Amino acid sequence: MPANLTPDYLEAEANSSRPKRPTRKIRALEIMMALIPQAQGTEKIRAQLKSRNGQIEGRLQRKPTVGKAEQAFYIKKEGTAQILLVGLPNTGKSTSFLKMHHAVSEVAD
Length: 109
Description:
mainly alpha
């Protein structure tokens, strides 16, 4: 069954391929879902939009992996923060700091 798509929806569909970030792609798909008319001819298109939205959200929620194993924890880099590394001598605090930030720090013997 043919779908009568509005010009607003067609414009939103053209704009949906532009965003690179997953959050913006999700927003574009939500706009398309809001603009698509609810009719029998648009059921398949709605299902495809929901499926694409679910795939993108799934990629966002997936934890990063190292090799085949998932990382135990992951902290997104955003904004500024202060972190305090506390531990006994020779436990790798400076080395961990160097690997995380690629900054210059003295590593004692």
